[in-house]
């Protein structure tokens, strides 16, 4: 029985709590998701969810990070999870392409708001929820994603159900039944990429996980073999599955510790080239490049080869745009993917002089950018391992810088306080203090 | 309608036409029977253990609202009222009927307006079921949950009167959530699949009304519903003879004795009044009053927690 065995293993890990590297990486994941969810808290898609909640959601007192409204509990989870993934600036588990923090963080919000939960209990619940997502994702990788599923949505409800079940103090059997019920609530087709549906997927996965846990608590019955049944979760969602990956080394080797954080809000294959361009910015000293060559892994051409993006979304699929922005501005963040920046004449001129030079000798997390000037002078920068890659993880300082810029978009001047609160969340006696600290005041 | 339109776009044009071109009278009559039949199941199951668990879960999450639930006294937000109604109702049409009930009540529609949304939802979910072919069911999908999401969203979006772009967005928001597997057979979780289909559909329509977006290729795109949920899609079946042949016509005629057997234990003598409202000649009866008739006057059959 997959769910019973998995829940029993999780219960053993819960009792000891998480510590050391697992706790540290979980806190870093929470820091990142606090940044992305506050950073996009006032985007159009999140506005729509909050407005719909206000009109149709009934009474509620649950906050949404980065906003001032108090809304109904499930809409708050939906808004938070959608915001977290809105800008594609998430954490990424590279082996599965899951963005694990959004769904489990979002599902926690209503439960943290309604009762006192200690920070260490919250961190443990988030760690085990993310580990659940990643283990089930590993068991279906690569087959499930290749079919067309957005894996962040399909495993998200499982992780959210576990996080909620742990926050609610479930015993093993109720935790297993939460998973069984959540197995019938996966969502997310990749057809929605490029629309608001993509970020909706982890937001709704959070709601589904919360619902599954509450249904389990209220006595809803479900199949105990919902995952392995020949008509069950894996049979419907994947052409093959590797069951041993669910529990192999569980509790000793943590997928959570493989989580990474995007330094730039765009596809990961662009990152080394953009970082190289950022380094060259100062060396330009106002001179106009006549030619820019990006020596890169061949996948860059396939995945992000758009040479002439026309808006923020298409720019995210243009390594050439990221390089031009790095050269022009020196720091590439969300403002450099805003439509008005993408359409700037000087940026377009730089893009027009930039070409991709694919090379099989370049690794995926490497790139070299070469700039030639009219006087024959040249400058170049090479990145051996991109910032945020597994070989060169974001340092705490780099992560804090990223999150500070995200928070400044929505809650100007509050980044230091939010970061201090989130970095120290493990020590909090009551996470309601955390919620109060990440929410907008009436004057924000 | 042109062949370059996506399936969703062709469906949107069909749905819009239902308000301007009359549905054949026989189809409308069949819709009344189908509506009454499923409503009877929903009322009969309203106080059952699956509905109690769902209402308990919704209440435990801290949700309250103003939308009624068939056969019960609680008032919930529309998304969650549809969850309970869809869980209570049975059969392939359950998500469409539950989403139609909640959406129609929300906008103050009449019974005959509700039937227009219902006919739309039944038509498109039935076509989707055939278009996904046997290959879809062989994998283990619970068809009521999967195609129910799409049919229920079509019904809800039509009843909310969404313009074409929003109608297409609603369909996309629901389509990406199509789910449910048959390992849950024999458990309450199976009934929850049709509740989820109705609930997610009502939410999709409300979000789309507010401006939330999704792809127009949600059904027939390369990474869309049909490509993902079956190895053997029959896409022409999704639109062939749309508006010419009607899936609702194939619904078995509702039998008043079945209705009374299900509803009688809950409503007693008032079962007849509910049957008349659902099937009678007066189609102007507000859906809100059908909900009111579905509730027992004694509290004994509907536990309040």
Describe the structure.
The complex is a heterodimer of chains A (444) and B (305). Chain A is of the alpha+beta class and 444 residues long. In chain A, 54% of the residues lie in helices and 8% in strands. Chain A contains 22 helices and eight strands. Chain A has a four-stranded mixed β-sheet with strand order 6-5-7-8. A two-stranded antiparallel ribbon of chain A has the order 1-2. A two-stranded antiparallel sheet of chain A has the order 3-4. In chain A, helix 5 (101-114) runs antiparallel to helix 6 (119-140). The longest helix of chain A has 22 residues, at 119-140. The mean pLDDT of chain A is 96. By secondary structure, chain B is mainly α. Chain B starts with 6 loop residues before the first helix and ends in an 11-residue tail after the last helix. Chain B has a two-stranded antiparallel sheet with strand order 1-2. In chain B, helix 4 packs antiparallel against helix 9 (188-210), helix 5 (94-106) crosses helix 9 (188-210) and helix 6 runs antiparallel to helix 7. Chain B contains 13 helices and two strands. Residues 299-305 of chain B have low confidence and may be disordered. Chains A and B meet through helix 3, helix 11 and helix 12 of A and helix 3, helix 4, helix 8, helix 9 and helix 10 of B.
Short key terms for the protein model shown above:
heterodimer, A: 444 residues, alpha+beta, two-stranded antiparallel sheet, 22 helices, 8 strands, 8% strand, B: 305 residues, mainly alpha, 13 helices, 2 strands, 60% helix, 1% strand, disordered C terminus
């Amino acid at each position: 029985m997959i769910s019973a065995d998995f829940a029993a293993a999780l219960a053993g890990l819960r009792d000891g709590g998480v510590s050391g590297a697992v706790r540290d990486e979980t806190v870093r994941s929470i820091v990142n998701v606090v940044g992305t969810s506050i950073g996009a808290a006032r985007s159009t898609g999140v506005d729509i969810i909050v407005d719909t909640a206000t009109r149709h959601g009934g009474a509620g007192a649950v906050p949404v990070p980065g906003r001032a409204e108090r809304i109904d509990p499930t809409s708050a989870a939906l808004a938070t999870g959608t915001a977290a993934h809105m800008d594609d600036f998430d954490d990424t588990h590279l082996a599965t392409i899951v963005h694990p923090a959004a769904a489990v963080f979002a599902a926690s919000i209503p439960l943290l708001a309604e009762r006192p939960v200690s920070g260490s209990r919250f961190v443990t619940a988030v760690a085990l929820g993310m580990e659940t997502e990643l283990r089930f994702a590993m068991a279906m990788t690569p087959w499930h994603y290749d079919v067309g599923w957005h894996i962040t949505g399909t495993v998200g409800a499982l992780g959210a159900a576990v996080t909620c079940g742990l926050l609610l103090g479930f015993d093993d059997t109720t935790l297993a039944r939460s998973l069984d019920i959540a197995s019938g609530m996966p969502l997310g087709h990749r057809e929605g990429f490029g629309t608001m549906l993509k970020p909706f997927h982890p937001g709704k996965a959070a709601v589904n996980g919360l619902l599954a846990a509450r249904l389990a608590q209220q006595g809803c019955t479900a199949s105990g073999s919902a995952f392995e049944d020949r008509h069950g979760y894996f049979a419907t969602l994947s052409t093959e599955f590797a069951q041993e990956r669910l529990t192999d080394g569980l509790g000793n080797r943590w997928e959570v510790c493989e989580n990474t954080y995007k330094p730039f809000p765009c596809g990961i294959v662009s990152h080394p080239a953009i970082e190289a361009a950022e380094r060259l910015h100062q060396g330009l000293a106002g001179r106009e490049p006549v030619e820019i060559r990006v020596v890169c892994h061949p996948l860059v051409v396939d995945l992000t080869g758009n040479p002439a993006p026309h808006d923020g979304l298409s720019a995210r699929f243009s390594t050439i745009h990221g390089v031009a922005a790095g050269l022009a501005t020196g720091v590439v963040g969300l403002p450099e993917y805003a439509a008005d920046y993408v359409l700037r004449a000087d940026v377009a001129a730089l893009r027009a002089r930039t070409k991709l030079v694919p090379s099989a000798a370049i690794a995926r997390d490497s790139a070299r950018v070469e700039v030639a000037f009219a006087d024959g002078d040249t400058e170049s920068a090479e990145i051996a391992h991109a910032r945020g890659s597994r070989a060169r993880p974001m340092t705490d300082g780099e992560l804090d810088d990223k999150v500070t810029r995200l928070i400044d978009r929505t809650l100007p001047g509050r980044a230091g306080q939010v970061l201090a609160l989130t970095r120290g969340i493990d020590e909090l006696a009551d996470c309601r203090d955390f919620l109060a600290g990440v929410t907008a005041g009436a004057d924000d | 309608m042109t062949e370059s339109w996506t399936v969703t776009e062709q469906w949107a044009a069909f749905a819009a036409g239902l308000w301007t071109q009359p549905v054949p009278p026989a189809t409308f009559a069949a819709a009344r029977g189908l509506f009454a039949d499923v409503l009877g199941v929903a009322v009969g199951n309203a106080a059952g253990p699956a509905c109690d668990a769902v209402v308990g879960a919704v209440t435990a999450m801290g949700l309250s609202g103003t939308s009624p639930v068939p056969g019960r006294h609680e008032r919930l937000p529309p998304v969650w009222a549809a969850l309970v109604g869809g869980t209570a109702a049975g059969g392939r049409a359950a998500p469409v009927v539950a989403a139609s009930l909640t959406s129609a009540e929300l906008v103050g529609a009449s019974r005959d307006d509700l039937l227009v949304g219902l006919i739309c939802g039944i038509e498109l979910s039935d076509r989707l079921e055939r278009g996904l072919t046997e290959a879809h069911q062989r994998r283990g999908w619970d068809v009521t949950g999967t195609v129910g999401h799409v049919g229920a969203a079509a019904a809800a979006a039509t009843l909310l009167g969404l313009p074409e772009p929003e109608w297409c967005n609603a369909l996309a928001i629901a389509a990406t959530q199509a789910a449910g597997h048959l390992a849950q057979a024999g458990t309450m979780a199976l009934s929850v699949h049709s509740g989820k289909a109705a609930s997610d559909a009502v939410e999709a329509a409300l979000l789309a009304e507010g401006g939330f977006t999704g792809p127009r290729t949600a059904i027939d795109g390369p990474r869309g519903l049909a490509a993902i949920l079956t190895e053997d899609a029959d896409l022409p079946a999704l639109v062939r003879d749309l508006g010419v042949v009607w899936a609702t016509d194939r619904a078995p005629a509702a039998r008043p004795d079945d209705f009374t057997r299900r509803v009688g234990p809950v409503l007693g003598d008032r079962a007849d009044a509910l049957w008349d409202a659902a099937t009678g000649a007066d189609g102007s009866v507000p859906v809100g009053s059908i909900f009111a008739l579905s509730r027992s006057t004694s509290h004994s059959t509907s536990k309040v927690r």
